[in-house]
Design a protein that fits this description.
Length: about 180
């Protein structure tokens, strides 16, 4: 019943009135939340927005090879696979992580980004991670659209376009629902 009353009240308010009400309520709401709970919530939201994550249509090894082939076919520079599972297994580590990274670069995008800010080369080549857990095989990479926004409009535009290219290149590998 309380939810219905609140919804009715909120629907009768203008957008400015809703914002003003929320601003007035926020300090009291914040007092009710423990500091550690708030930090956990902020951390969860930040981590969630830092990465783009999809489930693969393929198994672990097949996904790695499919990403490398798609990058090669699209003209990405030097796709290199680092299979952490094989490395850890060869070192005799218990329960090696079923994780691999495919490092690759979109040369024309990289060229323009480095011209704009040479320090950004530290993020190149981009890493695409493949990992397997009980929920399947996942493909993850840094949210370069979000990252680009931190470095100005030119870099933001280039990284936004590169992000679209990544999705196009990996289209046949990814399950369309994010995971």
């Amino acid at each position: 019943m309380m939810d219905t009353m609140m919804a009715s009240m909120m629907n009768s308010m203008s957008p400015d009135e809703k914002q003003d009400s929320m601003i007035k309520l926020m300090p009291e709401m914040m007092k009710q939340i423990k500091g550690s709970d708030m930090m956990d919530l902020i951390r969860e939201k930040m981590v969630g927005s830092m990465f783009v994550s999809y489930t693969s249509k393929h198994g672990f090894s097949e996904t790695i090879q499919a990403i490398k082939k798609a990058g090669d076919d699209y003209g990405w520079y030097n796709p290199v696979i680092t299979n952490h599972y094989e490395i850890e297994e060869s070192m005799g580590l218990d329960s090696p992580n079923q994780v691999a990274t495919v490092s690759m670069c979109i040369p024309r995008s990289a060229y323009h980004i480095i011209k704009e800010n040479p320090k950004l080369a530290v993020m190149m080549p981009m890493q695409i991670t493949v990992y397997e857990d009980e929920n399947g095989v996942h493909v993850v990479w840094m949210n370069i659209t979000m990252m680009g926004k931190m470095f100005g409009s030119n870099v933001s535009k280039i990284m936004g376009e590169a992000s679209k290219m990544i999705l196009n290149v990996l289209e046949d590998i990814l399950d369309k629902k994010e995971g």
